[in-house]
Structures are given as C-alpha cells and as structure tokens.
Specification:
The protein is an all-alpha fold. It has helices at about 25-30, 30-35, 55-60, 60-70, 75-100, 105-120, 135-145, 150-175, 185-195, 200-205, 215, 220-240, 240-245, 255-260, 265-300, 305-325. The chain has two domains: about 20-180, Orthogonal Bundle (Farnesyl Diphosphate Synthase), CATH 1.10.600; about 180-340, Farnesyl Diphosphate Synthase, CATH 1.10.600. The protein is built from 16 helices and no strands. It starts with about 20 loop residues before the first helix and ends in a 26-residue tail after the last helix.
Length: about 350
C-alpha cells in the first residue's frame, strides 16, 4: 500500500559506536546457522519453507547489529548474542506472516504454548521435536549455547524470551480488536514486545561486568534499567513506523499510540515520540550522573564494584549507540528506493560517580 509521507526526526545519540574485533569471523559464519536452522532459503528470491530469502537476510545485517551492540564480547559470547538476536527477528517475521497477517489468534496461542516448552525451567521437562525454523533455532540455542552460560543469565534470558513471545500474542489480539493501547500501558508493554529484557544480559556479555547485587533492586537502578530498555524499543517504533503501520496495519506502535491518545497528526505524533525517546536517554544520563553517586556511597561499594558498575553503564550506552546505528543503516526498515538516514555525531561517555 502507499506509504504516508512523513519526516523522521533525527534522534539524539551522542555516544560513539564501536565494532567488535571478532566481527570478520562472525561475518564469515553469518549465514551458516540461519541456513542450518531452516530460516534461510536456498535461492535468491524464493524462501520455500524458510523465513527469509538471501537478499532479505542480508538486508537485516544482524552480524553488524551484534558487532555494534556488544563490541567487547568474546567470539563465543558474540556468537550467542548474534544467534539470540537473529532468533528474535526470525520469530518476529515468522509470527507476522503465519499469524498476524491471517489474523489467526488460536494458532498464535498454540504456537506460543509450544515455544514455552523449549523455554521451560522445570528440570526434566519434556521438550517437543522442532517442527519449524523458529522452534529449531530456539532448541539449538538452548542445547548448544545457553547451557554454557552462568545460571543467572540462562534464567534472565529465558524469562525475557517468554515475555517476548507472550507479547506477540497480545499484539495480535490488539490488532484484531482494533485496540490502540494506552500510553502508560504501552510504554511498559514495549519492554516485553521488543525483547528489551534481554539487553542487560547482552551488556554483561559485552563488558563482563554486572550491576552490584546490593544496589540492583533499588529505585534508582530500577529506574535506570527502565530508561535503558524504553529507549531502545520506543526508538525502534519511530524507525519501523512505516513498515509496521503502513505495510502491516499494526496498532502496537508508539506513534499510533500518541496519535490516538493526543488527537494529533501522524507527523506531530512522530515528533512527540522522538521527544519521548530523547527524554528517556536524558533521564538515564541524569540517574547515572546525579542519583547513582550518592547511592554508591550509601551502599559502600568498593573500588572493584564501582569500576564494574561504570563499565556496565558505558556498555549500556554503547549498546544503545550500536542499536541506533543499525536502525539507521539496515535496509530492514528503509526500502531500497528511500535514502538511509544520516549518521549522528559522537561525544564523550557519561562519567559515573
């Protein structure tokens, strides 16, 4: 269908993008796993039973996405992040074509129930034999990659993936009912539907650092994590608006939510969405610069814990920068007949107290 003529605002992203040193090795094997799982078709234009043709796969540039978002990861951790990111995109495109487009809510629920079996944390749980590329990919990640990660990361990643696939069912229900979510509801929901809860684990893979346990559940750190996750999903809504709304008729998008709740035009809603995304980054910076230092002193963090926290925070900003670089360069969101958005300037990272 004809796309609406809207001008996408340039989002604020003042942090440099770094490239993982293992990118050449990842690039070499970029197609291998997707093809082995059945996600990638054999021909240049026909997908057969696969999810993507080769041109579609190359347009996503998931190897670049991974190398930019986890620049400090080892090759093994880079491979884990790459396959998890590739899997979430495979699920997204498969779910859209198999269930969203035909409006098959019962089928979506049954498919999601099966995926939960692959993500079960119950010892000895029966896992079904994979019947499609999405199930095959998830089974392979669980069997060959996640088992070698620390227990807390396995639990966090699987919990995040369960929230992610469940959100897909809710998105479909919203579409079928023509129900545009409330803004507050949507902001919370978007963390799940973007798989943003996986991102703190990716930062840990990239930096080798964790948020110290004795401040992890404080109001300040919870707010900081929320701002971190909000930025990535809501920024994606702006970049992917025309793909999701004009092409797929999806109501689960920040621009649509603002347009409906504020009674404004699409262009005004796009600009309001950009203001909100920029505000979430500024709030992350405010928390890191102003509220974390007294919390660190009050909690009595030692020098090693302080250094680890600062490393993690810089990794989080690097993740956002890499993600934004991918948004604005991958052809997944920008058609071939449209120019790619320009690159943004870089600046120094945010210091932590």
């Amino acid at each position: 269908m004809t796309r609406q003529a809207i001008e996408l605002p340039k989002l604020r992203m003042p942090y440099p993008t770094h490239v993982n040193s293992h990118f050449p090795a990842l690039h070499e094997e970029n197609e291998t796993w997707a093809r082995r799982m059945g996600m990638l078709g054999c021909g240049a234009s026909s997908t057969r039973e696969a999810i993507w043709s080769l041109p579609q796969f190359h347009a996503m540039a998931v190897d670049r996405l991974t190398a930019w978002t986890v620049p400090g990861a080892s090759l093994a951790d880079l491979r884990l992040a790459h396959r998890l990111m590739l899997w979430t995109l495979a699920w997204d495109d498969y779910f859209a074509s198999a269930f969203k487009q035909p409006g098959d809510l019962p089928g979506a629920r049954a498919f999601t129930t099966r995926l939960h079996a692959f993500l079960s944390s119950v010892p000895g749980a029966v896992v079904p034999d994979p019947t499609n590329a999405v199930e095959q990919g998830l089974a392979d990640i669980q069997d060959h990659l996640l088992r070698s990660t620390p227990a807390h990361m396995q639990q966090e990643l699987n919990r995040a993936l369960r929230r992610y696939i469940d959100a897909g069912v809710q998105e479909l229900a919203n579409n079928l009912a023509g129900r545009v979510p409330d803004l507050i509801e949507y902001a919370l929901f978007r963390r799940e539907s973007f798989a943003a809860y996986t991102a703190p684990c990716f930062v840990e893979l990239s930096t080798g650092a964790q948020i110290p346990e004795n401040i992890r559940h404080t109001r300040t750190v919870s707010a900081l994590l929320d701002a971190f996750m909000d930025h990535m999903g809501l920024a994606n809504d702006i970049v992917s608006y025309q793909r999701e709304v004009d092409d797929e008729r999806d109501v689960n998008n920040l621009v649509v939510v603002l347009e409906a709740s504020l009674g404004i035009t699409v262009q005004e809603a796009v600009c309001a969405a950009a203001d909100l995304v920029n505000a979430r980054l500024r709030y992350f910076e405010h928390l890191a610069q102003t509220e974390l230092p007294p919390l660190i002193r009050q909690a009595g963090l030692n020098a090693c814990e302080r250094a680890g926290l600062e490393t993690w925070l810089q990794g989080a900003l690097s993740f956002l920068s890499g993600l934004y670089a991918w948004y604005t360069s991958a052809r997944r969101y920008v058609p071939e007949d449209e120019p790619l958005p320009g690159q943004r300037p870089t600046a120094a990272a945010v210091p932590v107290g």
